[in-house]
Amino acid sequence: MTKNKLERLKFSDISESSPYIIKNFIASNNQRDKLDISFDYPFSIDAIVFIICLKGRGKVKINFKEYIVEENSISIILPNQIVEKIDHCENHVVEVLCCSIDFLSDLPFPNNFELPRRIAENPILKVTPEEIQHLLRYHSFIIETFNGKQNQFQEKIIKGLLFSLLMEIGTIYLEQEGDIAPCEKMSSRNKEIVQQFMTLLKEHFKIGRTASFYADKMFISPKYLSAVLKKETGRAINSWIEQAAIMGAKMMLKSTNLTVLQISEELNFPNPSYFGRFFKKSTGMTPKYYREKV
């Protein structure tokens, strides 16, 4: 798989090139070859990626929201989320697990577990050094089992270990939710509005360029939507919309052979000149330079 062709990865794209795979599961540690996933360009993948940060610091955007990834943090990327690395230090060290939805489909999660919702709301979780070491023991045991002697129960054993790891992560989410002061929690209605807007933005960023476009789909006024987003995210709605368009442009510039004209039309810009100015204002470079040099 070519490193600069990463718009929408399929789990099979990675698994075919990975030196260690059990059907719908891939594992990686720092002593082995890296998985063929690059964070250098925006991408999405039809799998779940678990990342444990052991050292260093960086910034990443997940579904257009910016997060800090640092030592003693865990990151979980859900299927089809749009991910973009903003920056990172040279000594960034992580451990990775990656699996398809199918690999987790038959695990007996509690009915009230709601881990996907919690991850979607907060994909980067800062934890204590003790919690990191506890999670790393699961990770190490999974790696050892994965790289050990193959047997007929190996996949079931790894599924059991992964299930235990996910339950531990779910417990951390629950404990941290309990530590949030009531005044810091987003109201349920505002949370619903923010989540609905983010979902719509991901679906319609190619054509939706105004607050009215999204407000109409949510049956609320543009003024109310703008006020909620500003209050709860600290950013104006136009900032979210413009950022989504830029991320979409980067994905297409790096993952397709479409011309700049075709991309500007795909993203509903009036002409390529306007698109070029818009892109340069946000990134400091022209679309052509980004495609060829970055």
UniProtKB/TrEMBL annotation:
This is AraC-like DNA-binding protein. It holds the Pfam family HTH_18. SMART domains: HTH_ARAC. One of its GO terms (molecular function) is sequence-specific DNA binding. InterPro entries: Homeodomain-like_sf, HTH-like, HTH_AraC, Tscrpt_reg_AraC-type_HTH. Keywords: DNA-binding, Transcription, Transcription regulation. PROSITE patterns: HTH_ARAC_FAMILY_2. Residues 195-293 form the HTH araC/xylS-type domain.
